[in-house]
Write a structure and sequence with these properties.
The chain is mainly alpha-helical. The chain has three helices and no strands. The protein has one domain. The longest helix has 35 residues.
Length: 93
């Protein structure tokens, strides 16, 4: 699961860098904000992955990780959508 978290974080950061350096669509300040948000996302979910609820009960652990993965993908979608929305606004200008 940690590999998935790191991969998703890497995708957010890479997309932000591409849009700033190649396409000149976001400013340095916006880039720093996106990277900060991506790192916060990573740290939050790695921390939660390292400390599951109900360690002694395999059923609770499976449910915990299933719910964690769902929340992680929803938050990733929101972060990615925010970046895409900003880029669309910059393209319209």
């Amino acid at each position: 699961m940690k590999k998935d978290i790191n991969f998703l974080t890497s995708e957010l950061v890479t997309q932000a860098y591409l849009n700033q350096f190649l396409f000149k669509k976001i400013s340095d300040k916006e880039l720093a904000n996106y990277i900060g948000d991506a790192l916060d996302f990573r740290n939050k979910y790695v921390e939660r992955t390292n400390h599951p609820d109900g360690k002694d009960n395999p059923k609770l652990v499976r449910g915990y990780y299933k719910n964690l993965r769902k929340e992680m993908l929803e938050e990733f979608g929101k972060l990615y959508e925010t970046l895409a929305q900003q880029l669309n606004e910059q393209s319209a200008k």
